[in-house]
Amino acid sequence: SDSINLAVIGGDGIGPEVVAEGLKVLQAVSGAKVSTTDYDLGARRWHRTGETLPDTVLEELRGHDAILLGAIGDPSVPSGVLERQLLLRIRFELYHYINLRPARLFPGVSTPLDVAKVAPNGIDFVVVREGTEGPYTGNGGALRVGTPHELATEVSVNTRFGAERAVRDAFARAQARERKHLTLIHKHNVLSYAGHLWRRTVEEVGQEFPEVSTDYAHVDAATIYLVQDPSRFDVIVTDNLFGDIVTDLAAAITGGIGLAASGNINPDRTTPSMFEPVHGSAPDIAGQSKADPTATILSVAMLLAHLGRHDEARRVEHAVSADLASRGDKVRSTTQVGDAIAAGVI
Ligand code: IPM
Ligand code: MN
Protein backbone atom coordinates (compact mmCIF):
# COMPACT_ATOMS: atom_id res chain seq x y z
CA SER A 1 0.00 0.00 0.00
CA ASP A 2 1.11 3.56 -0.31
CA SER A 3 0.96 4.76 3.22
CA ILE A 4 2.81 3.84 6.38
CA ASN A 5 0.95 4.47 9.58
CA LEU A 6 3.62 4.55 12.24
CA ALA A 7 3.46 4.70 16.04
CA VAL A 8 6.51 6.48 17.44
CA ILE A 9 7.81 6.09 20.97
CA GLY A 10 10.87 8.30 21.40
CA GLY A 11 11.13 7.36 25.05
CA ASP A 12 13.95 8.39 27.36
CA GLY A 13 17.41 9.93 27.11
CA ILE A 14 18.77 9.94 23.57
CA GLY A 15 15.69 8.06 22.33
CA PRO A 16 13.83 11.06 20.86
CA GLU A 17 17.02 12.40 19.21
CA VAL A 18 17.85 9.18 17.36
CA VAL A 19 14.22 8.54 16.45
CA ALA A 20 14.02 11.97 14.80
CA GLU A 21 16.88 10.98 12.49
CA GLY A 22 15.30 7.61 11.78
CA LEU A 23 12.10 9.37 10.73
CA LYS A 24 14.09 11.84 8.63
CA VAL A 25 15.59 8.97 6.66
CA LEU A 26 12.25 7.19 6.41
CA GLN A 27 10.64 10.31 4.93
CA ALA A 28 13.55 10.74 2.54
CA VAL A 29 13.51 7.19 1.21
CA SER A 30 9.90 6.20 1.17
CA GLY A 31 7.54 6.76 -1.68
CA ALA A 32 4.79 6.08 0.81
CA LYS A 33 2.88 8.72 2.66
CA VAL A 34 4.30 8.35 6.17
CA SER A 35 1.99 9.38 8.97
CA THR A 36 3.20 9.22 12.55
CA THR A 37 1.54 9.26 15.95
CA ASP A 38 3.82 10.21 18.83
CA TYR A 39 3.35 8.46 22.14
CA ASP A 40 4.71 10.12 25.24
CA LEU A 41 5.86 7.11 27.21
CA GLY A 42 8.80 6.55 29.51
CA ALA A 43 10.32 8.24 32.53
CA ARG A 44 8.67 11.66 32.06
CA ARG A 45 5.20 10.16 31.81
CA TRP A 46 5.82 7.94 34.82
CA HIS A 47 6.99 10.86 36.97
CA ARG A 48 4.06 13.00 35.90
CA THR A 49 1.23 10.49 36.12
CA GLY A 50 2.58 7.23 37.50
CA GLU A 51 1.57 5.53 34.25
CA THR A 52 3.84 3.27 32.22
CA LEU A 53 1.66 1.88 29.46
CA PRO A 54 -2.06 2.64 29.83
CA ASP A 55 -4.31 -0.03 28.30
CA THR A 56 -5.85 2.57 26.02
CA VAL A 57 -2.43 3.37 24.57
CA LEU A 58 -1.65 -0.31 24.08
CA GLU A 59 -4.90 -0.62 22.14
CA GLU A 60 -4.02 2.38 19.99
CA LEU A 61 -0.61 0.91 19.20
CA ARG A 62 -2.36 -2.12 17.73
CA GLY A 63 -3.91 0.06 15.06
CA HIS A 64 -0.59 0.98 13.42
CA ASP A 65 1.47 -0.71 10.70
CA ALA A 66 4.60 -0.69 12.85
CA ILE A 67 6.16 0.92 15.90
CA LEU A 68 9.46 2.81 16.02
CA LEU A 69 10.99 3.03 19.48
CA GLY A 70 14.03 5.01 20.65
CA ALA A 71 15.01 3.88 24.13
CA ILE A 72 13.39 3.22 27.47
CA GLY A 73 14.97 3.60 30.90
CA ASP A 74 16.14 6.32 33.23
CA PRO A 75 18.15 6.27 36.47
CA SER A 76 15.43 8.33 38.18
CA VAL A 77 12.96 5.44 37.85
CA PRO A 78 13.45 2.29 39.92
CA SER A 79 15.18 -0.43 37.92
CA GLY A 80 12.79 -2.74 36.11
CA VAL A 81 9.65 -0.59 36.26
CA LEU A 82 9.80 0.87 32.74
CA GLU A 83 11.60 -2.17 31.36
CA ARG A 84 8.95 -4.60 32.54
CA GLN A 85 5.79 -2.50 32.43
CA LEU A 86 6.50 -0.71 29.19
CA LEU A 87 9.09 -2.32 26.92
CA LEU A 88 8.62 -5.97 27.81
CA ARG A 89 4.87 -5.51 28.10
CA ILE A 90 4.71 -4.29 24.50
CA ARG A 91 6.89 -7.19 23.33
CA PHE A 92 4.73 -9.70 25.17
CA GLU A 93 1.29 -8.26 24.45
CA LEU A 94 2.01 -7.78 20.75
CA TYR A 95 3.49 -11.30 20.38
CA HIS A 96 6.94 -10.12 19.37
CA TYR A 97 8.26 -13.64 19.58
CA ILE A 98 11.17 -12.99 17.23
CA ASN A 99 13.72 -10.50 18.43
CA LEU A 100 15.81 -10.19 15.29
CA ARG A 101 19.30 -8.74 15.66
CA PRO A 102 21.63 -8.67 12.65
CA ALA A 103 25.38 -8.45 13.24
CA ARG A 104 27.25 -7.29 10.21
CA LEU A 105 30.65 -5.65 10.00
CA PHE A 106 30.31 -2.93 7.37
CA PRO A 107 33.40 -1.92 5.37
CA GLY A 108 35.42 0.82 7.04
CA VAL A 109 33.97 0.22 10.49
CA SER A 110 36.48 -0.32 13.25
CA THR A 111 36.23 -3.26 15.59
CA PRO A 112 38.33 -4.38 18.54
CA LEU A 113 38.96 -7.67 16.71
CA ASP A 114 41.96 -8.31 14.52
CA VAL A 115 39.67 -9.00 11.59
CA ALA A 116 42.35 -10.11 9.16
CA LYS A 117 43.31 -12.80 11.62
CA VAL A 118 40.05 -13.93 13.26
CA ALA A 119 37.43 -13.06 10.64
CA PRO A 120 39.04 -13.13 7.20
CA ASN A 121 35.65 -13.97 5.71
CA GLY A 122 33.97 -11.04 7.37
CA ILE A 123 31.24 -10.94 9.98
CA ASP A 124 27.67 -11.28 8.82
CA PHE A 125 25.24 -13.20 10.93
CA VAL A 126 21.83 -12.70 12.45
CA VAL A 127 20.59 -13.62 15.89
CA VAL A 128 17.05 -14.90 16.26
CA ARG A 129 16.44 -14.22 19.92
CA GLU A 130 13.21 -15.67 21.30
CA GLY A 131 11.25 -12.68 22.57
CA THR A 132 8.41 -13.73 24.85
CA GLU A 133 9.67 -16.45 27.17
CA GLY A 134 12.74 -17.54 29.13
CA PRO A 135 13.58 -15.74 32.35
CA TYR A 136 11.83 -12.62 31.03
CA THR A 137 8.32 -13.68 31.98
CA GLY A 138 8.52 -12.38 35.55
CA ASN A 139 7.89 -15.86 36.85
CA GLY A 140 9.74 -15.80 40.12
CA GLY A 141 9.55 -14.62 43.64
CA ALA A 142 11.33 -13.90 46.87
CA LEU A 143 11.01 -15.04 50.47
CA ARG A 144 12.36 -13.58 53.70
CA VAL A 145 13.58 -10.50 51.86
CA GLY A 146 16.25 -8.57 53.74
CA THR A 147 17.03 -11.42 56.10
CA PRO A 148 20.12 -13.64 56.02
CA HIS A 149 17.78 -16.37 54.77
CA GLU A 150 16.50 -14.47 51.77
CA LEU A 151 15.62 -16.66 48.81
CA ALA A 152 14.95 -15.52 45.26
CA THR A 153 13.87 -17.50 42.22
CA GLU A 154 13.68 -16.43 38.59
CA VAL A 155 12.07 -19.17 36.58
CA SER A 156 12.91 -19.59 32.92
CA VAL A 157 9.73 -20.45 31.05
CA ASN A 158 10.20 -22.52 27.90
CA THR A 159 7.24 -23.92 26.01
CA ARG A 160 7.44 -26.25 23.04
CA PHE A 161 5.13 -23.82 21.22
CA GLY A 162 7.40 -20.86 21.97
CA ALA A 163 10.67 -22.61 21.15
CA GLU A 164 9.24 -24.19 18.03
CA ARG A 165 7.98 -20.98 16.47
CA ALA A 166 11.32 -19.28 17.13
CA VAL A 167 13.29 -22.24 15.79
CA ARG A 168 11.12 -22.54 12.67
CA ASP A 169 11.54 -18.84 11.94
CA ALA A 170 15.33 -19.20 12.37
CA PHE A 171 15.44 -22.17 10.00
CA ALA A 172 13.46 -20.25 7.40
CA ARG A 173 15.89 -17.33 7.66
CA ALA A 174 18.87 -19.69 7.36
CA GLN A 175 17.27 -21.35 4.33
CA ALA A 176 17.00 -17.95 2.64
CA ARG A 177 20.67 -17.11 3.21
CA GLU A 178 23.66 -18.14 1.17
CA ARG A 179 25.38 -20.32 3.75
CA LYS A 180 22.22 -21.93 5.14
CA HIS A 181 23.69 -22.61 8.53
CA LEU A 182 21.96 -22.50 11.92
CA THR A 183 23.61 -22.54 15.35
CA LEU A 184 21.64 -23.21 18.51
CA ILE A 185 23.13 -21.46 21.53
CA HIS A 186 22.10 -22.75 24.93
CA LYS A 187 23.60 -24.34 28.03
CA HIS A 188 22.23 -27.86 28.04
CA ASN A 189 25.02 -29.24 30.19
CA VAL A 190 23.50 -27.37 33.13
CA LEU A 191 20.03 -26.21 32.04
CA SER A 192 19.06 -29.75 31.12
CA TYR A 193 15.30 -29.43 30.91
CA ALA A 194 15.10 -26.35 28.72
CA GLY A 195 18.26 -27.41 26.88
CA HIS A 196 16.69 -30.73 26.00
CA LEU A 197 13.54 -29.01 24.77
CA TRP A 198 15.48 -26.62 22.53
CA ARG A 199 17.79 -29.32 21.15
CA ARG A 200 14.96 -31.68 20.28
CA THR A 201 13.02 -28.84 18.71
CA VAL A 202 15.97 -27.95 16.47
CA GLU A 203 16.40 -31.61 15.51
CA GLU A 204 12.73 -32.10 14.71
CA VAL A 205 12.03 -28.83 12.91
CA GLY A 206 15.30 -29.37 11.03
CA GLN A 207 13.65 -32.27 9.19
CA GLU A 208 11.61 -29.65 7.33
CA PHE A 209 14.81 -27.88 6.20
CA PRO A 210 17.16 -30.55 4.84
CA GLU A 211 19.36 -27.95 3.12
CA VAL A 212 20.16 -26.15 6.37
CA SER A 213 23.16 -27.44 8.33
CA THR A 214 23.07 -27.08 12.11
CA ASP A 215 25.45 -27.04 15.01
CA TYR A 216 25.36 -26.19 18.67
CA ALA A 217 27.40 -24.08 21.09
CA HIS A 218 27.11 -23.66 24.81
CA VAL A 219 26.62 -19.97 25.53
CA ASP A 220 29.92 -19.63 27.40
CA ALA A 221 31.86 -21.17 24.53
CA ALA A 222 29.87 -19.04 22.10
CA THR A 223 31.28 -15.87 23.68
CA ILE A 224 34.78 -17.17 22.83
CA TYR A 225 33.78 -18.01 19.25
CA LEU A 226 32.24 -14.57 18.82
CA VAL A 227 35.60 -13.01 19.59
CA GLN A 228 37.95 -15.59 18.06
CA ASP A 229 36.02 -17.03 15.12
CA PRO A 230 32.88 -14.96 14.41
CA SER A 231 32.83 -15.95 10.72
CA ARG A 232 31.51 -19.34 11.76
CA PHE A 233 28.08 -17.89 12.51
CA ASP A 234 25.30 -17.45 9.94
CA VAL A 235 22.01 -17.66 11.84
CA ILE A 236 21.94 -18.10 15.61
CA VAL A 237 18.82 -19.14 17.46
CA THR A 238 18.67 -18.84 21.22
CA ASP A 239 16.49 -18.05 24.18
CA ASN A 240 15.55 -14.60 25.43
CA LEU A 241 18.31 -14.09 28.01
CA PHE A 242 21.18 -15.73 26.13
CA GLY A 243 20.05 -13.72 23.12
CA ASP A 244 20.14 -10.50 25.11
CA ILE A 245 23.71 -11.17 26.19
CA VAL A 246 25.19 -12.46 22.94
CA THR A 247 23.67 -9.62 20.92
CA ASP A 248 25.50 -7.03 23.02
CA LEU A 249 28.72 -8.91 22.31
CA ALA A 250 27.73 -9.22 18.65
CA ALA A 251 27.27 -5.44 18.57
CA ALA A 252 30.63 -4.88 20.24
CA ILE A 253 32.49 -6.82 17.53
CA THR A 254 30.68 -5.12 14.64
CA GLY A 255 31.33 -1.47 15.40
CA GLY A 256 29.60 -1.03 18.69
CA ILE A 257 26.20 -0.42 20.10
CA GLY A 258 25.77 2.75 18.02
CA LEU A 259 25.25 0.59 14.96
CA ALA A 260 23.20 -2.35 16.29
CA ALA A 261 19.63 -2.55 14.99
CA SER A 262 16.77 -4.77 16.03
CA GLY A 263 13.25 -5.78 15.25
CA ASN A 264 10.72 -7.14 17.69
CA ILE A 265 8.72 -9.07 15.20
CA ASN A 266 5.42 -10.88 15.10
CA PRO A 267 5.90 -12.90 11.92
CA ASP A 268 2.19 -13.74 11.91
CA ARG A 269 1.43 -10.03 11.38
CA THR A 270 -1.63 -10.03 13.59
CA THR A 271 -0.10 -7.09 15.47
CA PRO A 272 2.40 -4.34 14.56
CA SER A 273 6.06 -5.20 14.96
CA MET A 274 8.39 -2.82 16.77
CA PHE A 275 11.82 -1.66 15.62
CA GLU A 276 14.44 -0.20 17.95
CA PRO A 277 18.16 0.28 18.31
CA VAL A 278 19.73 -2.29 20.64
CA HIS A 279 21.31 0.47 22.72
CA GLY A 280 19.72 2.09 25.75
CA SER A 281 18.79 5.66 26.65
CA ALA A 282 22.37 6.82 27.45
CA PRO A 283 21.23 9.60 29.86
CA ASP A 284 24.84 10.79 30.20
CA ILE A 285 24.86 12.13 26.63
CA ALA A 286 21.16 12.94 26.23
CA GLY A 287 20.24 16.31 24.74
CA GLN A 288 23.74 16.99 23.40
CA SER A 289 23.31 15.70 19.84
CA LYS A 290 26.16 13.26 20.46
CA ALA A 291 24.31 9.98 19.98
CA ASP A 292 24.88 7.98 16.82
CA PRO A 293 21.49 7.55 15.11
CA THR A 294 22.80 4.83 12.79
CA ALA A 295 21.37 1.94 14.83
CA THR A 296 17.93 3.54 14.66
CA ILE A 297 18.30 4.21 10.94
CA LEU A 298 19.24 0.57 10.34
CA SER A 299 16.21 -0.38 12.43
CA VAL A 300 14.13 1.72 10.04
CA ALA A 301 15.58 -0.38 7.21
CA MET A 302 14.39 -3.50 9.04
CA LEU A 303 10.97 -1.89 9.47
CA LEU A 304 10.73 -1.20 5.73
CA ALA A 305 11.76 -4.77 4.92
CA HIS A 306 9.15 -6.09 7.33
CA LEU A 307 6.51 -4.02 5.54
CA GLY A 308 7.61 -5.59 2.27
CA ARG A 309 9.31 -2.40 1.05
CA HIS A 310 12.55 -4.20 0.21
CA ASP A 311 13.85 -1.71 -2.31
CA GLU A 312 13.54 1.15 0.16
CA ALA A 313 15.15 -0.99 2.87
CA ARG A 314 18.11 -1.71 0.59
CA ARG A 315 18.51 1.95 -0.24
CA VAL A 316 18.70 2.84 3.44
CA GLU A 317 21.29 0.12 4.02
CA HIS A 318 23.36 1.33 1.08
CA ALA A 319 23.24 4.90 2.31
CA VAL A 320 24.34 3.77 5.78
CA SER A 321 27.07 1.61 4.30
CA ALA A 322 28.39 4.49 2.19
CA ASP A 323 28.28 6.85 5.15
CA LEU A 324 30.11 4.36 7.38
CA ALA A 325 32.78 3.80 4.74
CA SER A 326 33.59 7.52 4.62
CA ARG A 327 33.16 8.29 8.27
CA GLY A 328 36.73 8.00 9.52
CA ASP A 329 37.38 9.73 12.84
CA LYS A 330 35.19 12.74 12.09
CA VAL A 331 33.05 13.78 15.02
CA ARG A 332 29.56 14.62 13.81
CA SER A 333 26.37 15.52 15.60
CA THR A 334 23.33 13.25 15.65
CA THR A 335 21.57 15.45 13.11
CA GLN A 336 24.62 15.64 10.81
CA VAL A 337 24.76 11.85 10.59
CA GLY A 338 21.01 11.72 9.93
CA ASP A 339 21.28 14.43 7.25
CA ALA A 340 24.16 12.65 5.51
CA ILE A 341 22.35 9.33 5.40
CA ALA A 342 19.06 10.92 4.37
CA ALA A 343 20.88 12.63 1.51
CA GLY A 344 22.34 9.29 0.47
CA VAL A 345 19.12 7.32 0.04
CA ILE A 346 18.02 8.95 -3.18
C1 IPM B 1 17.47 -5.09 25.09
C2 IPM B 1 17.46 -4.53 26.47
C3 IPM B 1 16.19 -5.00 27.19
C4 IPM B 1 16.24 -6.52 27.24
C5 IPM B 1 15.98 -4.41 28.59
C6 IPM B 1 16.03 -2.90 28.57
C7 IPM B 1 14.70 -4.90 29.20
O1 IPM B 1 18.61 -4.89 27.16
O2 IPM B 1 16.57 -4.77 24.30
O3 IPM B 1 18.40 -5.85 24.76
O4 IPM B 1 16.82 -7.08 28.16
O5 IPM B 1 15.66 -7.13 26.35
MN1 MN C 1 20.05 -5.98 25.96
3D architecture notes:
- The protein starts with a strand and ends with a helix.
- It is built from twelve helices and twelve strands.
- The protein has a ten-stranded mixed beta sheet with strand order 2-1-3-12-11-4-5-10-8-9, sandwiched between helices. The protein has a two-stranded antiparallel sheet with strand order 6-7.
- The radius of gyration is 20 Å and the shape is globular.
- The model has no long low-confidence stretch (mean pLDDT about 95).
- The chain has two domains: about 1-100 and about 260-345, Isopropylmalate Dehydrogenase (3-Layer(aba) Sandwich), CATH 3.40.718; about 110-255, Isopropylmalate Dehydrogenase (3-Layer(aba) Sandwich), CATH 3.40.718.
- Helix content is about 40%, strand content about 20%.
- Strand 6 and strand 7 (about 150-155) form a beta hairpin.
- It is an alpha/beta fold.
- The structure holds 3-isopropylmalic acid (IPM) and manganese (II) ion.
- Manganese (II) ion (MN) binds near residues 244 and 248.
How many domains make up the coordinates? 2
- What proportion of the residues is helical, as a percent range? 40-55%
Gyration radius over CA? 20 Å
The CATH topology of the largest domain? Isopropylmalate Dehydrogenase
Low-pLDDT ranges: none
Share in β-strands: 15-25%
The order of strands across the largest sheet is 2-1-3-12-11-4-5-10-8-9
Going by helix content, strand content and strand pairing, the class is: alpha/beta
Subunit structure: Homodimer.
Pathway: Amino-acid biosynthesis; L-leucine biosynthesis; L-leucine from 3-methyl-2-oxobutanoate: step 3/4
Site (Important for catalysis): 136, 187
Family: Belongs to the isocitrate and isopropylmalate dehydrogenases family. LeuB type 2 subfamily.
